[in-house]
Amino acid sequence: MKIVITGGPCSGKSTIISELKNRGFKIIDETAREVINDRNLDSNMTRDDSISIQHEIILRQIEKEKVIDGSFEIYFLDRGIFDVYAYYLHLTGRIPEDMPFVESEKYAAVFALEPIKFVKDNARREDDAEALEIHEKILEAYIAQGYTLINVPVMDVEKRAGYILSVVDDLKKEF
């Protein structure tokens, strides 16, 4: 069972993923950050840099998710495939024709974390306004794929994780 933790830049996704991992759950780390780190890009990367890495991100994400396809275990993903769609829309206004096809029923649930105070780092080049715009595009991308997003309000990490796990417990009853 794949469960996406998503939201705009600096919404606490990686922190929640780390907390869930500490609680014993299986996780899939954020692919975009891996690609950025592998390419030694920093916060000064250009818009063209950002566009050029999106294809690599989605291909890596697809490969990561193939490993867990069909698993009955719970996996929490730090972003999902449709986050890449949102970034393409944000950066170019369209999704490229050569974008790999992905079935939209891949995820058991999608949790959308409300944004928190924005902090720049080597992978974040946005300002507050752009981060919020990206957040909205991400939500739109999942909704366009037929997902009902589960909003996770801002609260401390333990409470956010607890909230997510309580919803997941309810979801497990449906499967």
Largest sheet: 5 strands, parallel
The amount of beta strand, in percent, is 5-15%
Series of secondary-structure elements, N-terminal to C-terminal: EHEHHEHEHEH
Number of structural units classed as domains: 1
Instruction: Categorize the overall geometry.
Output: globular
Tags for this model:
single chain; about 180 residues; alpha/beta; Rossmann fold; five-stranded parallel beta sheet; 6 helices; 5 strands; globular
Notes on the structure:
The chain has six helices and five strands, in the order βαβααβαβαβα. With 175 residues, it is of the alpha/beta class. It has a single domain, classed as P-loop containing nucleotide triphosphate hydrolases (Rossmann fold). It has a five-stranded parallel beta sheet, with helices on both faces. The chain is globular and about 45 Å long.
Would you summarize the structure shown here?
50% of the residues lie in helices and 11% in strands. The protein is of the alpha/beta class. The chain has one domain (2-174): Rossmann fold (3-Layer(aba) Sandwich), CATH 3.40.50.
